[in-house]
Amino acid sequence: MPFPALRCPVIPDRLRSLEDISGSIRAVQGLMPDQQNEYIQRAESYIREERARRDRLFEVDKREWLMALEELGDRAAKTDLRRVAINLKDRSEHGDGSHYWYKFSNTNHLMGWLLKKGRCVYCNADLVRDGYIRDGRATTDHLVPYCLCRELDRDYLNAVPACGICNSLKWNMDPRK
Q1: Contact at 8 Å (CB) between 87 and 68?
Q2: Are 31 and 39 in contact (CB under 8 A)?
Q3: Contact at 8 Å (CB) between 139 and 91?
Q4: For the chain, what is the domain count?
Q5: How deeply is 34 buried, as exposed, middle or buried, from its count of CB atoms within 10 A (0-12, 13-18, 19+)?
Q6: In a domain, 176, yes or no
Q7: pTM for the complete prediction?
């Protein structure tokens, strides 16, 4: 649901009087206090609806994730990880969820997530169950930074789940040194 359109004042092509000019300038300079309150209320309502919608969709994605982990079991063979990752992406693409798993454009990154069961490899936070991924606080970290070795971007062992805080603290640190 897109944000509701707000009526913005338009400056007329031809301004006929000083009153027209001053009214148009006031409109462009900012909102009136009652407009601000109205816009805040509309935005709050939109945000509440959007959060509820995303929460409903995320529950579907979380169930898909748990099913994928159950399917994988304790196996960590590359072929099993690839098969489960592709199935998860496919179910996400064609299901009723919000498509978190389909957004992994690099299947190897999703394989890295599955291998580590969606837990931040640094602080052990459960990025799926605890909603990090839903809230945009989950990332895929490259153990050996992408800027130092681009070839490893396609290596599922180099792509690991990380919470945003740990990933930003690690940044470009090279663990090989």
Answers
A1: yes
A2: yes
A3: no
A4: 1
A5: exposed
A6: no
A7: 0.74
- The rounded Cα 130 to chain-centroid distance in angstroms is 14
* Identity of residue 4: P
Q: Tell me the C-alpha to C-alpha distance, in Å, between residue 132 and each of 2, 55, 72, 136.
A: 24, 12, 22, 6
> What string of pLDDT tens digits covers the 177 residues of the chain?
455 554 444 444 454 455 555 555 555 567 788 889 999 999 999 999 999 988 888 898 899 899 999 999 887 799 999 999 998 888 777 666 567 787 888 999 999 999 999 999 999 999 999 999 988 999 999 999 999 999 999 999 999 999 999 999 999 999 988
Q: Please report whether residue 98 resides in a domain.
A: yes
Which residues span the domain enclosing 98? 18-170
Distance of CA 162 to the CA centre of its chain: 13
